[in-house]
């Protein structure tokens, strides 16, 4: 439903369209049951970055200080992309994996339930 | 012959209703060009019953008396080094939160009521809005004057107005009020006067003012008292406006209900900051957020909406969600500032043992299970010299602009994710309430100035944390970070140890 406004044609380009991010796109990454990181985190990433680089170079910098992190068995991680289960191809780019601007990548690490099992 | 004194009733009529006039050569639609576009239908403005019957001359007299009392007490507070009588320097961080987050909203309320006082066609509400506009200006002034005393001794107060427009968490209160002020006059008054001031204000003022009293902050208590009679008038105006709209035309009901739904949810999300303050920032606690929500919303608010049922108004949408998550949100919020206080102009800390016990007792279903282990881990890390700061920037809700920190009430170990796609662009929300608000008016919220995205777009001083802190005017290592390592704490310990006379104290660390 359109907004009620005092001017006609109340429409603007969204503030966060992909072209405003200098060649990057925003990718959000959340780690289920590890809310010591209070919210999913946001990264500006090149769309041609391999998914494997996200896992090896970006995610450790964000979550590596968690005591569960060294115990992650990466081949057992269950991924979700924008809410749907998916299996990333580590060699292929984010774009080829279907990771769009402002997509949410969630990882569930079986057997790891946060500090003291609290989901932290 | 001496002029006969006017009766109160005559005086009221002469000095409010008689101030209006009929327009003979201009089209009223051009004069009040914002009166119709929201769809609210008013048949007869003369049916407006002024709930206060306050005239402008009496208004000036009352306000002047209140000012004299307030400034006498503030002077005494300063002369007696009242800042040394607070319970603990950690408390001052609650005042920093108030000055950066709330006081600028008082100024926005001043502007907002001036604008709608010009736009509402009835003289009764015009005068009421004029008075409220002046009240709000007085509130922001008295708050700045009162809190300026703390600025002499503690860090983080010095650039509150600049920060309000820039610092990430302050986009939460700022965008709340900008949303209201960029709406039409009827939505604005429903948002601010009814949904916020009438339904929720007890949850803003009571915790801050009682918290101040419990913690020896007589300065804040005093401006709170000085504002209290104004607040009572504002609440009455909010209720009167809503009843008036509902009585004037049946078509107004669905519009007003939608505004109540929207602004209840927006106000409630904003109060997350207050919940955090109550549960974590008061060394001497008044009551828990959960208890306050039960008393002021579930009981009092429930009674209010029962009264409004005869107009067809029901409880605000998603109120059940607020009850389901009342044991979660204050802890999620403090954890957020613990993650990110390197980028905020106040300090955070791990509650002490007796404080953790208090939280366990007040939140028997949630605290030990989901939150206490997190704090104990962080405390241990801090002891090892590895104080945890989140190195990445958080994902934000497009509507309330709070980081996506709210857990699912059904499983508090999971983040609550909601999203919408509008014109091919994806948008994210913390809750069904925030998603609904976006879905109804996406054209408005696609323009949200989301601090994290603005940093990535290069609009906030640079790409590194020091660049952004400079742009915030935030002094790293002085205004921000862990309380235990702060100059505020070092100064406080020194003052309380009596090493120096209070009168000779230097100002807190210079920038």
Could you explain the architecture of this structure?
The complex is a heterodimer of chains A (120) and B (511). Chain A is of the alpha+beta class and 120 residues long. Chain A has a single domain, classed as Ubiquitin-like (UB roll) (Roll). Chain A is 11% helix and 21% strand. The N and C termini of chain A lie far apart (39 Å). In chain A, 34% of the residues are buried. The model of chain A has no long low-confidence stretch (mean pLDDT 96). With 511 residues, chain B is mostly helical. Chain B has one domain: Ribonucleotide Reductase, subunit A (Orthogonal Bundle). Chain B has 23 helices and 5 strands. In chain B, the strands form 2 sheets. A two-stranded antiparallel ribbon of chain B has the order 2-3. A two-stranded antiparallel ribbon of chain B has the order 4-5. In chain B, helix 10 runs antiparallel to helix 11. The mean pLDDT of chain B is 93. Chains A and B meet through strand 1, strand 2 and strand 5 of A and helix 16, helix 18, strand 1, strand 3 and strand 5 of B.
SSE inventory with pairings:
The complex is a heterodimer of chains A (120) and B (511).
Chain A: E1 25-31, E2 41-45, H1 51-63, E3 78-81, E4 84-86, E5 103-108
Parallel strand pairs in A: 1-5
Antiparallel strand pairs in A: 1-2, 3-4, 3-5
Chain B: H1 8-15, H2 28-31, H3 56-79, H4 92-101, H5 103-119, H6 123-151, H7 160-164, H8 171-181, H9 185-200, H10 202-214, H11 218-248, H12 252-270, H13 272-281, H14 289-308, H15 319-324, H16 329-340, H17 353-362, H18 367-383, E1 393-394, E2 407-408, E3 411-415, E4 418-422, E5 425-429, H19 432-440, H20 442-445, H21 451-457, H22 465-472, H23 487-496
Antiparallel strand pairs in B: 2-3, 4-5
Helix pairs in contact in B: 3-6, 3-11, 5-6, 5-8, 5-9, 6-11, 9-11, 9-12, 10-11, 12-19, 13-16
Largest interface: A-B, 52 and 59 residues
Whole-number tally of structural domains of chain B: 1
- Specify the CATH class of chain B: Mainly Alpha
Mean pLDDT of chain A: 96
Number of domains of chain A: 1
CATH class of chain A: Alpha Beta
Share of helix of chain A, binned: 10-25%
Quote the distance from N terminus to C terminus of chain B. Answer: 68 Å
The share of residues in extended strands of chain A comes to: 15-25%
Report the uncertain regions of chain B: none
Q: Which residues of chain A form runs of ≥5 with pLDDT under 50? A: none
Describe the main β-sheet of chain B briefly. 2 strands, antiparallel
